[in-house]
Amino acid sequence: MLRHALCIFCLVLSGLMVLIVPSAYAQTIDDFDQTQLPSEDPTPMLTEASEIDIDKLAKEFNLPSRILNPRIESQRLELLLLPLTEKQLAAASEAWQRIVQEQTQDVVDATLRVSEMDGETADLFRGRVAKLAEERRHLFDNFVLVLNDWQKKGGNADEIAKYRAYRSSIIIDEIRNADVETLRQRTVKWLAARDGGIEVAIDGAVVVMSLLGLLFVARIIRAVTRRWMGRVKGMSFLMAAFLGGLFYWLTLAIGLILVLSLLGMDVTPLFALVGGASFILAFAMQETIANFFSGLMIMMNKPFDEGDYVDLEGFAAGTVQQTNLISTTIATVDNKIIAVPNNRVWNSVITNVTASATRRVDMVFGISYSDSIGHAINLLEEMIEAHPLALETPAPVICVGELADSSVNLLCRPWSKTEDYWELYWDMQQVVKERFDAEGISIPFPQRSVHLEKANPDLET
Questions:
Q1: Strands (DSSP E) along 62-107, which ranges?
Q2: Domain 358-439 has CATH 3.30.70.100
Q3: Disulfide check for 312: which of 56, 98, 210, 316 has CB 3.0–4.6 Å away?
Q4: Highest mean pLDDT range out of 177-181, 215-219, 279-283, 416-420?
Q5: Residue 433 clears pLDDT 80, i.e. is over it
């Protein structure tokens, strides 16, 4: 949070510098112009009535004159364009191109006149030409508004592309042919303009502040979602974590789209871009998509949850640490971390060892054929009853399981809590061996008797 606060402070400080420094610089230039500039100004006025006859232009294209007013604000123009049809917008685009063309000619003429000067006079007049170009930028913005509205209402894509290319070529060629001092002064004018650098700084600050606020709100929504989902009966931790992350990213995405829309940005191309990219990625990432839907199936069907010990057909066994939409992370008993693609997990036989609260501990103890079976069974029952981890219910099963080659195998099957399984198993191995030794019951090991017979003497001769 401290880093975020410092970033916001720096951004606000930069905005104040943009507001104060260029304004002071511009004021100094204007004062100097009034005292030292010659009476003849080589830069023509941008929107003199004698240069652009708006009424005549509106009558020629059969359009309302207020739509073609060069000084109209962009927000007002955007509202006036709403009722116009596609044909009217086509005519408005041509009319605005003519306005931009005439004003561009004024900028070119003024630039040529300044190029004939030298010294301090040329430097001072460059600032006036920069101001003229900055005012013309407002016309370009309105021209783009008309083109955008024409495009939205089904305008000819080729014609619109020609108009846009005309605008771009003017801007690029002017920048390429301008000298360093002219570019610097134009940059200063743009930074000091309310609809230029100041607006960009304000919009940037709004986006940054909105993003910070959205991050805070999204984290709260994620935490509340996980907590609420955790109270739903039958809801797994994996599904709760997935839904929390889903709402987190949805909050950020929808919030940013709303902020950009409020700032006047057209977000419609974003949806078209996402749609086109999704179509391409669907072919390029088929395995990933299969893992994605397999992850959804795992979360909905809940064959396991975080913390469960699972066995995936022998190729992976361990405790589930995390499951996302792509892979499942498993920690083995020797603390190895295995990331298994969800598609392979879902298509395998999943054995959840710790899904139940209790487990049966299966053990086999062999005694000699010469030992008493009844006595051995009684000893096993006593040891099971005395062990604190063995459950009384369900009752343990102790019986003869097999008459093997070298021993009588007794089955011993007590029940324990799942987390006590291995401790009970290991304890019983030691306790039974020690008790059988004390009671004189032997635990035989496999053995084979070999009888040697003397060969037939007749065969030797």
A1: none
A2: yes
A3: 316
A4: 416-420
A5: yes
**pLDDT band for position 456 (50/70/90)?**
low
Q: pTM surpassing 0.90?
A: no
Of 89, 208, 211, the C-alpha closest to 142 is: 89
**Distance, CA of 45 to CA of 136 (rounded, Å):** 11
Give, in order, the Cα–Cα distances in Å from 50 to each of 54, 63, 287. 10, 20, 68
The domains of the chain are located at 37-195, 200-284, 289-352, 358-439
From the centroid of its chain, how far is CA 220? Answer: 17
- CB burial class (10 A; 0-12, 13-18, 19+) of residue 394? exposed
Would you state the structure tokens that stand for residue 35, as one six-digit string?
């005292």
> What is the CATH architecture assignment of 289-352?
Roll (2.30)
Residues 6+ apart with CB under 8 A from 244: 222, 223, 225, 226, 229
Run of H or E residues at 409:
strand 408-413
Q: Tokens in use for 121? A: 């006079």
